[in-house]
Design brief:
By secondary structure, the protein is α/β, with parallel strands linked by helices. The protein is built from 22 helices and 35 strands. A hairpin with an 8-residue loop joins strand 11 and strand 12. The chain is globular.
C-alpha cells in the first residue's frame, strides 16, 4: 500500500483515461485506486508484490511484450491498456493451467462462493481444457487450527509471504518440484505459530479453518462488523453468523492483519439469561454496596455508566489494571504536557529504530509483534528488545537483546533516558538527577552494562523514526510513576515516539472516562470481577448473568487512540448494565445513547454511535470510528532519582499468558489452544527442585494456585512463565500487581 509520502506526481493514461499517480506507485496500485479492474491471483496489498500468477499483465504503448502491473512503476506519459483480446487469451491460458487436475470439489469446499479460482475460471470462460498432467496423491496436513490440502494449492505464495513479512514466524516455504511443488511447514507442531492469517489470505480452499469446514456455506452467513474484545488493538473484524450462532470471525485480509486469539476466540457469549427477579437482586446489591469492582473488558459506554453512578450515588470505582495505567499516564503526561502518548501504532511498521521494554510482546500483544516484524523486514529497523526473559519467537527481528534483572526497570529506563537526552536542553533539576546517577552500581545490579547502552545510542545515528514500546511490566512496578516520567523525557526531549500499551481491550478508555479509586469499601458489586455480589458475563459464574462483549454494541478506545464501534453478534436473553443503572437513578433508553456523551475534555467527540464509520477505502486505509483529540494538561517535572534496586532472588515466576490466550473469556473458547501449565527452563526446574510433569503449588497476593510444570526447552534462565487466563475471577488478583513474583514452589503431585 502506497501513501502520499511525497508531492511528486506523474500523469498517465490507463485505458484512455487520464489519471494522476504518485511516483513510487505501481500500475496496479494506480488502477485500483481509480477503480480500474486488473485481474490478479497472487497479489496481496499488504506484502511486497509476489509476481507468481502473471494474471496482472498489461500492455504498454511502445513495449513489445506485456508487463506485470504489480511490479511496473509508473512514469510520466505512460499509456496502459489493461484489457484486449490478446490479454484475455493470455489470462485464459493461465487459468487453464491453474485448473489442471484441480479437484472438482466446489460443492463441499469451504472456499466455495468466495474462491478466486472459481471466480476467475468463470470470468475467463474456462469451459474446456487443453492441458493435462499426471495427478499424484498428496495427503491433507493438519496445522493447528487449519488444514493444508496440497491438491487444492495453486502455489500463489501468499501464505508464505504473510508468514515471513507480516506474522514473522517464518514457518512456511515453497518446496520446489515442478508439478509436485508444495508448501512446506517448518513449525507445524509449534502452538505459538499463528496460522489463521495464512488461511485468511489463501485465494482457494488449500488452507482452511478446520472448525469451519463442512458446517455451512459462506453465502448463508450474515457479516456483522465489530471490534476484537481480547486486545487493545481492537481489530476490525466481522462476526459471521447464522441462526444466532457465530460460525467464524474474518477480517479484510487484503489490507488488515489480526492475531489468532482474535480470529478463533469468538465463542465466549453468555448463553445463560437473567430475569426481572435477577434485576431486583442486582438493584438490592447496588443499594447495599459502596464499591463497584470491574475490569477493562467493557465498552466506553459502560464505563461512562459506572462513572455516572459514582457521581450520582458516591460509589468507589475499583479497576486495578486501569488505575495502574491511569497513574502511569498521569505521570507520563506531566512531563510531556499532553494527555496521550504520541506514538503511532500504524506508523510503527515504518520506524527504523524500535525499543521494546517491559513486555513479552509476542505473547502480550501479538499484533504489535507483527508491526515490529514489518519494520524489521521492510525498513531494516534496529529492534532492541529489553526484558529479563529472552524470546526465541522474535529472534529473527531483534538486532540487540538487552537482558535486565527483574525489578530493575526504573534504573534501566533512567540509564536509557540519560543516554538519549545527553545533548538536549534539559531543565537543571533533571540534569542534576542524571549527573548523580551511579551508572556503575546500576549496571552491576541490573545486569545492563554501560557498553550496551552505548551500543543502543550509536544505533540511533541517522535514524529518522524512533519508537519506544512500553509494556505492562512497567505499569504495576512499585516505581511505575517515576518510570513513566523518564519515558516522558524520552518523548519530549529525545523525540522518540512512545507507545504505552494498554493491557486490555478498553484499558485506555476506562482510564480516560472513570475517576478510579485505590481502596474498596465494605461491600462491593463486581462486574466480571470477584466481589460480594457478582454480575457475570460467564454463564452462571456469578450471582446474575450479563451479556458478553460479543452480545453488546458500544465502543472501545484502542491502542491507536481511536474510538471504534462494535456490534451485537448474537443475542442475550435479559437485561444489561444500562437497565440496572436506570433502576438506580439514571435514565437512558439504550447503552449507545451514551456514545455522544463521552467526555470531550478527555478527547472524545460528541458523535452518535450510528454515525461511526467502519470500512476500508480504495487505498486500503481503515476508516473506522474517530481519533481522540489530544488535550493539553498541566506539566509537572516531579522526577526522582531511582531507588536502590531490590533483588529478586530464589524462585521467580512471571505472570504471562500465551499468545493464544488472554483472559477468562478466551479460556472458554473451543478453538484456542490451552497451554495452562507453568513453563520454565531446566535451569529453573533444578533451582526450584521440581521436575517436568510435577504438580506444584504457589501463592501470589494471598491467592493459592496449583499448576502442572513443564520444562520448556526454548526458555532460558531462572524465571518461569505463569499463565492466569484459566484462574477465573479470583485469578484477577494475580494480574493486578507487578508481573514478576518471588514465590515458594511446593510439589503436591504428579
Amino acid at each position: 500500500m502506497v501513501t502520499a509520502q511525497s508531492v511528486s506526481t506523474v500523469e498517465l493514461e490507463i485505458d484512455g483515461r487520464k489519471v494522476t499517480a504518485w511516483k513510487d506507485e505501481t500500475i496496479l496500485q494506480v488502477a485500483r485506486r481509480h477503480g480500474i479492474y486488473i485481474p490478479t491471483m497472487c497479489y496481496l496489498s499488504k506484502v511486497k508484490p509476489i509476481a507468481s500468477c502473471r494474471m496482472c499483465v498489461v500492455d504498454i504503448e511502445g513495449m513489445e511484450d506485456p508487463v506485470l502491473s504489480c511490479q511496473e512503476r509508473v512514469i510520466e506519459g505512460l499509456k496502459v491498456t489493461t484489457n484486449s483480446e490478446s490479454l484475455y487469451n493470455y489470462r485464459q491460458q493461465i487459468m487453464k493451467l491453474y485448473d489442471v487436475n484441480h479437484p472438482l470439489e466446489c460443492g463441499v469446499c469451504p472456499k466455495s462462493g468466495e474462491c478466486d479460482l472459481q471466480d476467475k475460471t468463470l470470468e475467463f470462460s474456462v469451459n474446456d481444457q487443453d492441458f493435462s498432467a499426471r495427478d499424484h496423491y498428496r495427503p491433507i496436513e493438519q496445522w493447528g487450527n487449519i488444514s493444508y490440502d496440497p491438491a487444492l494449492c495453486i502455489l500463489c505464495e501468499r501464505c508464505v509471504r504473510v508468514s515471513n513479512e507480516i506474522v514473522g514466524d517464518e514457518a512456511l516455504q515453497i518446496e520446489p518440484g515442478g508439478y509436485n511443488s508444495k508448501i512446506v511447514n517448518l513449525k507445524k507442531d509449534d502452538l505459538n505459530v499463528d496460522w489463521g492469517e495464512c488461511a485468511a489470505v489463501c485465494p482457494v480452499g488449500a488452507l482452511a479453518d478446520t472448525h469451519f469446514k463442512s458446517t455451512t456455506n459462506p453465502w448463508e452467513l450474515t457479516k456483522i462488523p465489530a471490534a476484537c474484545a481480547h486486545s487493545s488493538f481492537g481489530h476490525f473484524i466481522y462476526y459471521e453468523t447464522k441462526h444466532d450462532k457465530i460460525y467464524r470471525v474474518r477480517n479484510v485480509a487484503e489490507y488488515d492483519t489480526m492475531s489468532g486469539v482474535c480470529r478463533y476466540g469468538y465463542d465466549f457469549e453468555n448463553r445463560g439469561s437473567n430475569s426481572e427477579e435477577d434485576l431486583a437482586k442486582a438493584f438490592a446489591a447496588f443499594e447495599k454496596a459502596d464499591t463497584i469492582v470491574f475490569n477493562s473488558m467493557i465498552t466506553n459506554e459502560e464505563a461512562l455508566i459506572l462513572q455516572k453512578l459514582k457521581e450520582l450515588r458516591g460509589y468507589r470505582l475499583i479497576n486495578p489494571e486501569a488505575r495502574n495505567y491511569q497513574r502511569f499516564m498521569q505521570a507520563f503526561t506531566g512531563i510531556t504536557g499532553q494527555n496521550l502518548y504520541m506514538g503511532d501504532v500504524d506508523a510503527l511498521e515504518s520506524s527504523d529504530y524500535i525499543v521494546v521494554i517491559g513486555t513479552r510482546v509476542a505473547d502480550d500483544v501479538p499484533a504489535l509483534k507483527f508491526k515490529i516484524n514489518q519494520a524489521s523486514k521492510r525498513h531494516r529497523a534496529e529492534v532492541i528488545y529489553m526484558h529479563p526473559l529472552e524470546d526465541e519467537s522474535i529472534r529473527t527481528m531483534v538486532t540487540q537483546f538487552v537482558k535486565y534483572e527483574a525489578g530493575s526497570e526504573e534504573s534501566v529506563v533512567a540509564l536509557l533516558a540519560k543516554a538519549l537526552t545527553e545533548d538536549k536542553a534539559l531543565p537543571e533539576a533533571i540534569k542534576r538527577i542524571f549527573d548523580a546517577l551511579d551508572e556503575g552500581y546500576i549496571s552491576a545490579e541490573s545486569n545492563v552494562g554501560e557498553e550496551e547502552i552505548g551500543v543502543m545510542l550509536r544505533k540511533t545515528k541517522r535514524k529518522k523514526s524512533m519508537t519506544l514500546v512500553a509494556g505492562a511490566d512497567l505499569l504495576a512496578h512499585p516505581k511505575a510513576e517515576n518510570i513513566a516520567r523518564f519515558l516522558g523525557l524520552l518523548e519530549r526531549y529525545a523525540h522518540m515516539e512512545v507507545i504505552v500499551v494498554p493491557p486490555s481491550v478498553n484499558t485506555l478508555g476506562v482510564s480516560l472516562i472513570c475517576d478510579l479509586d485505590d481502596e474498596a469499601g465494605s461491600y462491593a458489586v463486581g462486574y466480571n470481577m470477584p466481589a460480594d455480589f457478582v454480575l457475570s458475563a460467564l454463564e452462571d459464574a456469578g450471582d446474575v448473568n450479563m451479556p458478553a462483549l460479543n452480545q453488546q454494541e458500544g465502543t472501545f478506545t484502542t491502542i491507536h487512540k481511536k474510538v471504534v464501534p462494535t456490534h451485537v453478534a448474537v443475542g442475550f436473553d435479559g437485561f444489561c448494565l444500562n437497565d440496572i443503572a436506570n433502576t438506580l437513578g439514571l435514565s437512558t433508553r439504550y447503552t449507545i445513547d451514551y456514545t455522544s456523551q463521552l467526555p470531550q475534555e478527555k478527547g472524545f467527540r460528541a458523535e452518535n454511535f450510528d454515525a461511526l464509520p467502519a470500512y476500508f477505502d480504495k487505498d486500503g486505509n481503515e476508516v473506522r470510528g474517530y481519533t481522540l483529540q489530544v488535550q493539553s494538561c498541566p506539566e509537572e517535572m516531579a522526577l526522582e532519582a531511582p531507588d536502590e534496586l531490590e533483588s529478586f532472588d530464589g524462585t521467580v515466576v512471571y505472570v504471562c499468558n500465551p499468545n493464544a490466550q488472554k483472559n477468562i473469556f478466551t479460556n472458554i473458547c473451543a478453538h484456542l489452544p490451552r497451554e495452562d501449565r507453568l513453563r520454565g527452563s531446566q535451569q529453573f526446574a533444578t533451582a526450584a527442585k521440581i521436575s517436568d510433569g510435577d504438580v506444584v503449588s504457589l501463592t501470589i497476593d494471598g491467592y493459592a494456585i496449583e499448576k502442572k510444570f513443564k520444562v520448556e526447552p526454548e526458555l532460558k534462565g531462572t524465571i518461569a512463565l505463569l499463565p492466569s487466563f484459566d484462574l477465573g475471577f479470583e485469578g484477577e488478583r494475580v494480574t493486578r500487581g507487578y508481573r514478576f513474583n518471588q514465590v515458594k514452589l511446593k510439589q503436591v503431585g504428579k
